[in-house]
Amino acid sequence: MQTLVEAMKYYGQTEVKGPASNEFILKLQNKALAKYGLISTDDGSYPWCAIFVSFILNETGIWKDKWLIRAMDFMKEFPVVASPEFGKTLTLLWRESPTSGKGHIGWSINEYGATTNIFGGNQDDTVNITPFNKGRVKAYLKLPE
Asked: Which domains does the chain have, with CATH numbers?
């Protein structure tokens, strides 16, 4: 739950359209991308949902200077569980197709019917809670207590 509480402090951080950038998002991108020999000059040029989760895990002391830039890589880091728990699990979604290797990640908020609500970064280019089709869920990942 501590990670979700920390993540919510950044609610509303949004990419800046055009040549300017949100310095917070750009800083996170470059901190993570540097580990892979990459750099970003535009906050909208690189997907940052996994980078935002990595930032929060580092801020809360769960990780120490560890950065993932691909959502699907989180499956190697945390155990898969059968169902989501508010603030205690990450929800991993597939993107484009279940076999594309592309994904999206954020904190499990709640589910109702065919919808799962996720708190995360890079959701419509911002940090917010967004509803997704539950059919896109690839896995629920248990965070350390």
From this structure: 2-142 (3.90.1720.10)
